[in-house]
From TrEMBL:
PANTHER family listed in its UniProt record: ADP-L-GLYCERO-D-MANNO-HEPTOSE-6-EPIMERASE, NUCLEOSIDE-DIPHOSPHATE-SUGAR EPIMERASE
Domain NAD-dependent epimerase/dehydratase: residue ranges: 3-216
Keywords: Carbohydrate metabolism, NADP
Protein's UniProt name: NAD-dependent epimerase/dehydratase family protein
Amino acid sequence: MHVVITGANGFVGQGLIKRLLENGQIGQQTITRLTLLDRQFDEALSKEAPVAETGAITVEKYPGDLADSAWLWDTLSGSTIDVVFHLASIPGGMAEQNESLARHVNIDATMTLLDIAKAQTKNGQGKPVFVFASSIAVFGKMPDLVSDDTPLKPQLSYGAHKIVGEVMINDFSRRGWVDGRSLRLAGVLARPPAETGQLSAFLSDIIRELSQGHDFVCPMSPQAKTWASSLANIIDNLIHGAVVEESKIQDQRTLTLPTLCFSMAELVEAIGSVYQQPTDERIRYEVNPMIEELFGRFPALETPAADAAGFKHDGELKNLVKRALC
């Protein structure tokens, strides 16, 4: 099985790679080759990794510009692809600052990847599974309850770009060119400290800092509610997205993943309980109205289509907090 991962050097990408190398397979199929794409690679990966006693996974890293269509074609069109995990994107804050770059990466690169998959299918080499990391940013301003039927009203270019990707993946799947699955991810915790351009970075920072007994200034009020999942849970769901039977998602190629909804006060309490820290003494709330508008007014969530297809959340907030720093 040949697996392609875009955004492979990112937080989720590195976690997914580690899991795939540990497992050596997706579902019942053995992975023989991992092709990794990103602008650059910070962590060294060996060329080969052991897979039980049956062989090895060849790991190939290709640093380059995903907005360069010719580079993508040259890199990927020479061999049959079984699964694509398309994780690469220019996220919220960065996309607002550089809309042109964001559009090229978030929309143009997605279309190029779909065209490469289409060419493979039309050449009789098999239809790739295309797992697209979409985002809850597609919802924008939310009603009191978000469900599978909630209208999309993105407030950021990033969310608008993700909608375009979802629509085109649905269309390419309808035409039989890919077996697409667009998974809307909520916040993923806890990301390492880095300049990623993500406005939600404080949700990772609060767990890291309070768990170590450090003071933290939260840009949202105690009652502000958000959604989030642990990295481990997101990886579980991405891999499940690659193996779930096509018949279970035939009419619902775009799925909002189950995730936990909690207030900042509840998160602070859970961190204190899990890590035995006096978090109430360490936290100070200084509300940033824009941050709270974007990330602190999340309503109840229902995900019946994803639930029926076997996707899951972390279970409870303490479990998310434990898994966040693993």
